[in-house]
Amino acid sequence: MMKNVMEVLFLLMLLFTVHAKEKSYNPPEKPALTRCRSPEKETFTCWWEPGSDGGLPTTYALYYRKENSETVYECPDYHTAGENSCFFNKNDTSIWVNYNISVVAANALGRAFSDPVDIDVVYIVKPNPPEKLKVAVMEDKGWPFLRVSWEPPHKADTRSGWITLIYELRVRLEEEDDWEMHLAGQQKMFNIFSLRSGGKYLVEVRCKPDHGFWSEWSSTSYINVPDYFPREKSMWILVAAFSAFIFLILTWLLHMNTHRLKHCILPPVPGPKIKGFDKQLLKNGKSDEFFSALVVPNFPEASPSKYEDMLVVEFFEVKEQELMLEESNDLLDGGLKYESSRSDSDSGRGSCDSHTLLLDKCREAKEERQTNRDGSLIEKQIRQKDRKEEAISPDISSGRVKTWPSLYSPLPQYGSNPLDKQSSLEMAKQHSLSISSFLTQPGTKDALGLSYMDFCLSNKQNHVHPQTQVQTRSNVNISNIGHKHAPAGLHSPTTQYVEVQRVNKEDMVLLQPVLSRCGLIEDCPHLPKGEDYSKVKGVDYDNRLLLQREGTGEDMCSGMDQETNGERGNCYTTSTVSIMQKPTACIYTVMPIQEGMALTLNGYVDTANMGNLPSC
Amino acid sequence: MNGTFRSVSLVWVVLSGCLFFSSRRTSVCAAPICTNGKAGCHVLSLANLFDRVIQHSARIHGISSDLHSEFEQYFLPSKNQIGRVGRICHTSTIITPNGKENAQRMARGELTEVILKLLVAWRDPLWHFHQSMAHHHDFNNFSSNKALEMNDMVHELRQGVEKVAEKMQVQGIISNSVSSLASPEDLLPSDSVEWQLMKDYVLLYCFRRDSNKVQNYLKILKCRIVPDHGC
After folding, report:
1. In CA terms, which of A149, A243, A468, B160 is 20 to 30 Å from A264?
2. Which of A42, A100, A210 has its CB closest to that of B99?
3. pTM, full prediction
């Protein structure tokens, strides 16, 4: 049993020693001087921050050296200023002298020196806050203001000029958070204006020497500003008077502008605006007079301002070559483009401009044209008329129209190469929009014998756009599609004459050949030359017939079977062309020209077998 | 033509005369102080003079503080190193009061003398400092301008303090012995080469302190002599 007790004791002692060894003691950590301050430039205090004491009781000592002296002094007073501080009284303080101060921490195991600090008392002055702050409400011509006054801290000697202090005060209302700062300079009194009636104010002040730190804010002073402005009554009286004044002005304005307002709010009902409508007659009950007054003498108008009239009188003359295209533009991009699906407005362009039509034909025509320049007067006239952009009054009675202005200068070019009827036919077939009508030229030996003249008056300018120029050109594509070579011996102008008889009510242009008077097919005499005839130069690719004035060539019409009309035979070709809203909806009749029929002609439009009727 | 020519020439003469006289007025030489309060002459009171010189000294101290902090900022000399080397200012030979009591105990004449001694002692070093600043190009133009301004202002302050001393002597506040020390040669320490050995940083440090001394002493003088306002 004793052995057990001994063992236990031994174990306990071991434990104690081990425990004691874990808790090791160290020399103290390095202390640090935090700050030194002087309240009045006569004494100063330094504070330091001790480090860890290493577990042992540690003592701290402050040592200093004055400038240019090696003598080390110790702090004279460790207690006056509190814990971890050193107070230098007046005798120990020298101004404009550099102090080198350091703190030493010492315990049983060692010592630690802080980093030394150099100070000059002049530059570490932080005064006490000002004292005896007084705030009073004073009056200036009926308006109150605050007069704030204070005293410098009693320790700072400003009287002898040793310290110069500048002051700053701050004011705020009790219910607000933001202070209003005022710098007061060296004076010890300040006035604050613009007070809120009945408000409660807080005022504080602080000071600073000319080279030093700001003091803390003084204790707060409270002040109540009396109600100098009986706000409830007077303000409402003012408001009432002002609003009454405004009200008077408004009523006066209203009175002056009653009529205008009435007109604005209750606009008058508009009456009927019928020409010739006479209310009085109606009221009188005499219907005869009334209705007769409605009749307008010149109705319907014969003026050519409406575009249908212009359509009526248009002549067509399809000519093989030239068809001056002033703008041979980008359509002819590499072959025929079958782009019927492409949406194309097609406005203002000839058929060769349209991407969807007969590009090769156009190219061919262009080449033809270039080779065969014909500067006829009629052409020029047409061109001039093109530019004029006005309608010429048609001469309906004669059934022929003088050359009609083709209102759009870009005339399609199309050569009328009879060699390619096949391809053109195919083209025409394929193309849904196409009004490709080409007229076979005399001299061509077409195996197929089918050439179409289908044209569709352009329907771009229709009722929908009255202001636009009437596109009254019908373009007849004469050129052969696909053929790019210029026809060798086809230079003779092959022109065929078509004249627009009239435009019927369904917007259909009735055409008739010019050679209607010629009677026989084969020996039609020459067309009377002159101004009565206009040739169709060609068909534009957006379905416009281009007219041209020209001297005639051999005008023979190959009279064939007639077309729909059933008029007397021969050279009548009437084709009905309808003008529709959209090009796709264009309906045209195709008049295939027979094989040998028009070959020798210079471009007559012929009623032939109405074979294929490609629809628009 | 003749009339216009004459009038133009007259105007020119008048203008040139005005310019000439005004330039004379703004020359360095100040207007003579009126003696015995002659009529039409604006007499500056001692309080006004004191205010002016105090303002001047405050400005000098401000400039020197700026320059010193700039120097510290850019060159950052090791403080310990300087502390060990010791800041020996060339004016340390001049005995200056180091506390309020010492300063208040000192006679007014003595204090004025100390002020003048200090101002005189800094004349040459500041000039050389300005020269070295202009050559070094280490500082920007602003700093070199400050150095030049400091130089000029110390010169002007010295003249102002001399005027104040003169006035005080006239009014019998101080004895006449002060003015006899106006000659700068007597005030300089014999081994005046010391200041040449000072580095720029030490020079600025010393001058900052001395300008503060001058300002403080002037304020003490003023509150002792004319204690009405501002004290």
Report:
1. A243
2. A42
3. 0.51
Which of A46-58 are b and which e, b meaning 16 or more Cβ less than 10 Å from the residue's Cβ? bbbebeebbeeeb
Asked if A162 lies within 8 A of B92 by C-beta distance, the reply is no
Which residue from B150, B145, B152, B138 is spatially nearest to B71, judged by alpha carbons?
B138
- Least CB–CB distance from B83: residue in A100, A162, A186: A100
d(C-alpha A511, C-alpha A605), whole Å: 10
Q: Which residues of A318-345 are buried (b: 16+ CB within 10 A; e: fewer)?
A: bbbbbbbbebbeebbeeebbbebeeebe
Q: Residues A213-265: pLDDT tens digits? A: 999 999 999 999 988 766 566 788 899 999 999 999 999 999 988 888 788 88
B172 touches chain A (CB under 8 A): no
b (16+ CB within 10 A) / e for B188-221:
beeeeebbeebebbbbbbbbbbbbbbbbbbbbbb
Q: What is the DSSP string of A531-584?
A: TT--EEEEE-TTS-EEEE------------S--SS--S-TT----EEE--SSGG
What does the alpha-carbon distance between residue A501 and residue A499 come to, in Å, rounded to a whole number?
A: 6
Amino acid at A22: E
Residue A575 has pLDDT above 60, yes or no: no
Lowest mean pLDDT, pick from A221-235, A595-609, B1-15: A595-609
User: Strands A32-37, A44-49: parallel, antiparallel or unpaired by DSSP?
Assistant: antiparallel
Nearest alpha carbon to residue B94 among B222, B177, B204, B217: B217
DSSP 8-state code for residue B141: H
**Does residue A231 contact residue A225 with C-beta atoms inside 8 Å?**
no
Residue with tokens 């503060």: B212
Contact residues on chain A for B65, CB-CB shorter than 8 A? 211
Nearest-CA distance A113 → chain B (Å): 15
Closest CA to A479 of A372, A575, A382, A583: A372
* Higher pLDDT, residue A200 or A418: A200
End-to-end, the C-alpha distance of chain B in Å comes to 67
ipTM exceeds 0.90, yes or no:
no
Inter-chain CB proximity B98 and A122 less than 8 Å:
no
pLDDT of residue A450 exceeding 80, the answer is no
Instruction: Kindly state the tokens that stand for A58.
Output: 């540690």
DSSP state of A339: -
pLDDT in tens, A86-102: 999 999 899 999 999 99
User: Chain B contact for A42, CB < 8 A?
Assistant: yes
> Residues B80, B85, B91, B92: what is their CA dihedral angle, to the nearest 10 degrees?
90
Q: How far apart are CA A63 and CA A70, in angstroms?
A: 12
Is the Cβ of A8 closer than 8 Å to some Cβ of chain B? no
| CA gap A477, A368 in Å, rounded | 13
Place of tokens 């004290």: B231
A183 has a pLDDT exceeding 60: yes
What whole-number distance in Å separates Cα of residue A603 and Cα of residue A53? 125
User: SS3 for A38-94, per residue?
Assistant: ECCCCCEEEEEECCCCCCCCCEEEEEEEECCCCCEEECCCCCCCCCCEEEECHHHCC
- For B231, the closest of A96, A122, A159 (CB atoms) is A159
Q: Please report where in the chains the tokens 């050109």 appear, as a residue.
A: A473
To which H or E segment does residue A353 belong? none
Residue A419 has which token pair? 């060699």
Measured distance CA(A257)–CA(A14) in Å, rounded: 115
Nearest CA in chain A to B99: A95
Residue A265 burial (CB count, 10 A):
7
Say if A67 is an interface residue toward chain B (CB within 8 Å). Answer: yes
CA B231 to chain centre: 22
Q: Rounded to a whole number, what is the distance in Å from the CA of A63 to chain B's nearest CA?
A: 15
